[in-house]
From TrEMBL:
Role description: Specifically methylates the pseudouridine at position 1915 (m3Psi1915) in 23S rRNA.
Pfam families linked to this entry: SPOUT_MTase
Catalysis: reaction(s): pseudouridine(1915) in 23S rRNA + S-adenosyl-L-methionine = N(3)-methylpseudouridine(1915) in 23S rRNA + S-adenosyl-L-homocysteine + H(+)
Name under which the protein is recorded: Ribosomal RNA large subunit methyltransferase H
Gene name of this polypeptide: rlmH
TM annotation in the entry: none
SUPFAM superfamilies (UniProt xref): alpha/beta knot
Gene3D superfamilies per record: 3.40.1280.10
GO CC terms: cytoplasm
UniProt record similarity statement: Belongs to the RNA methyltransferase RlmH family.
Subunit structure: Homodimer.
Keywords carried by this UniProt record: Cytoplasm, Methyltransferase, rRNA processing, S-adenosyl-L-methionine, Transferase
Listed GO MF terms: rRNA (pseudouridine-N3-)-methyltransferase activity
Superkingdom: Bacteria
Length: 159
């Protein structure tokens, strides 16, 4: 299975980088996982609704340029479906069973994802109704992908 994590912006925090690198290293036993960063759109702190849409649109275009036609896309979105770790593991297992070997998880920038990215996605997944920094979501996501593979292999994991 080839998994891409497409995300907006550069990761600067050393502690997050270290955590992500650790889980990516562990994941090599299960799947090929790549993190693809696209540039975030520079914007002032205070934005009008139109400016927010423009920022999301530009970031969305960069995201969509990284997704091939045969990729199954899971967009991380607050309004998405909530799933347990076991349900995520089951979803990944079913995707593999039905020949979906290219999967992309998409994490938007600080303003979220554009409508075009949401339309392109095959499903929307929410980790919580709470808002998390998109940089932290990278770490949470790679840990949950790792956990999903452990669950599917019947290997121990922390509950």
């Amino acid at each position: 299975m080839n998994i891409s994590i497409i995300t907006v912006g550069k990761l600067k925090e050393k502690y997050l980088k270290q955590g992500i690198e650790e889980y990516l290293k562990r994941l090599t036993a299960y799947a090929k996982v790549d993190v693809i960063e696209v540039a975030d759109e520079k914007a002032p702190e205070e934005l009008s609704v139109l400016e927010m849409l423009q920022v999301k649109q530009k970031e969305g275009e960069r995201i969509l340029a990284k997704i091939s036609q045969d990729t199954y896309v899971i967009a991380l979105a607050i309004q998405g479906k909530l799933a347990s770790s076991e349900e995520l593991a089951d979803s990944l297992d079913k995707l593999a069973t039905y020949g979906k070997s290219k999967i992309a998880f998409v994490i938007g920038g600080s303003l979220g994802l554009s409508e075009d990215v949401l339309k392109r996605s095959n499903e929307e997944l929410s980790f919580s109704r709470m808002t998390f920094p998109h940089q932290l979501m990278r770490l949470i996501l790679v840990e949950q992908i790792y956990r999903a593979f452990r669950i599917n292999r019947g290997e121990p994991y922390h509950k």
